[in-house]
Structures are given as structure tokens and as C-alpha cells.
Amino acid sequence: MELCIFQKGFNFSQDGPGNRLVYHLQGCNLRCPWCSNPEGIPLAGGKGYPIKVLVEEAVRSRSMFFEGGGVTLTGGEVTVQIDAVKEFFAGLKSENINTAIETNGLSPRLSELFGDLDYLIMDCKHYDPDVHREVTGAPNVQTFRNIQKAVENGVRLALRIPVIGGFNASLRDAKGFVELFEKLDIKKVATIELLPYHEYGKDKYKKLGLEYSMTQQAKVSPEMIEKMTAYLRKYGFKIINT
Question: Which part of the chain is the Radical SAM core domain (predicted)?
Fold first, then answer.
């Protein structure tokens, strides 16, 4: 079995704890207009690597996994290739290598990874599934279910909110997230990170001959990020910045 990868390299602290070997997997089940890796959206593309080769690469990289580091899979969307990911993680855990994923949480099979997963980073882009569907192409009810499953299974969980003007960047939206997270009872096991909109993917869209539909309205002021952060902290949620 192979994993189809369009980018790989090391990154410190932003894709899980410590220094990590990060693989970007090809293919995504959403169409977020602010995506910073549009080259990873199509199912076709990237390069196929046999699982055995990737495990061997991770083992050779072990000396680089300082401060609790390891291997992180991101995308695209990791769960699009979930069977290969399961095989890869089993190989990594047999070598006692720390594992993490970054996911949108839409796969009903996500919990199949929990047994070999040390750190789960999950996007929660909106508290309203209908709004989520309108903007990204799919509702996110399954994401809420997977957050609950992670909480119930004691998985180390980091929730990320990409804060986008005109989509989820107001105090009303902060209230919506609080109400959702209260229902999911995440306080004891999860951290939350607010990620302000950026244009890192803009030039990539142009190179790929794609239209970049985001406008200046998407930008979020530092003041609004601070207000949303303060509101979430007011209700006892742990906010982090990586």
C-alpha cells in the first residue's frame, strides 16, 4: 500500500508537539475557498510512497524528533487515504514514534485511527452545519461527532478555528462556538487555537490557473481575535497559540 504525498518536510511546534516530520497527503473532501494548499485538493496528483519506505524514513529521522516530536500527517485531508494511514501509523507505533494528524474531522472512520494516534488536531470551522456546507461544500455534523468520540476516548485533542471575516469572525460567532463546545464538554481534554485568515495560498491559486475568490472582507483585525479569545477564556476554555 502507498500514501500519495504532495509535500513533506520538518516543522517545529505548529503541527503537533516538538520537531516533526510532516507529510502533506493528496486529496480533500472539502472546497474551502481560503485553502492554503489548493494543490492538495484534487484526488489525483502528488507522489506515491510505499508505507515501508515512509516508516524507514521516519526511523532514520528519529534523532530530529526532539522535544516530543514525531510524525504528523496533514493535507489535503488525511482521512481521504485512511486505509494507508492506518497501516503507516501501525508501522510507526511499532517503532515507538509519536504520531499526529491534522484533519477536518468529516470522516465517520476517524476513530479507527485513535488506537495508534498520540495527538489529534481537528479543524472546527463553524458551529452551524448549514453555514459550513454553504461555504465549504459539506456540513460538519460528523466533525462534532468525532470531537465527542475523541473526548470520550481520552485522545489528546487540539481544536483549531480558522477565523474568516464574513464567515465566523464576530462575538456572535464566539458565542456560537462556546455553546457548541459546552455541549461537547471539551474543557478537560482539549485546547482551542484561533487562526486568523491569511493569504498564503493566493499565489498558488494563480499558478494553478484557479480563481482566488477571497476578498479583503475575509481579513480579521487583531482586536477581534483578542475579543473572541477573551470570550472563550471567560467560559473556561484553554486557548493556545502555536
Answer: 14-238
Q: What is the largest CA-CA distance in the chain?
A: 48
The closest alpha carbon to 198, from 212, 182, 178, 183, belongs to 212
CB atoms within 10 A of CB 154: 10
CATH 3.40.50.150 fits 2-239, yes or no: no
Cell reading at 205:
491559486
DSSP 8-state assignment for residue 16: B
CA neighbours closer than 13 Å in the CB half-sphere of residue 6: 19
CA distances from 226 to 53, 162, 172, 181, 193 (A): 44, 14, 14, 19, 12
Scored b (16 or more CB within 10 A) or e, 100-120 reads: bbbbbbbbeebbbbeebbbbb
How many angstroms separate the CA atoms of 213 and 76, rounded?
A: 19
Specify which residues 99 forms β-bridges with. 71
Per-residue pLDDT for the chain (242 aa), expressed as one digit of tens each? Answer: 999 999 999 999 889 999 999 999 999 999 999 999 999 999 999 999 999 999 999 999 999 999 999 999 999 999 999 999 999 999 999 999 999 999 999 999 999 999 999 999 999 999 999 999 999 999 999 999 999 999 999 999 999 999 999 999 999 999 999 999 999 999 989 999 999 999 988 999 999 999 999 999 999 999 999 999 999 999 999 999 98
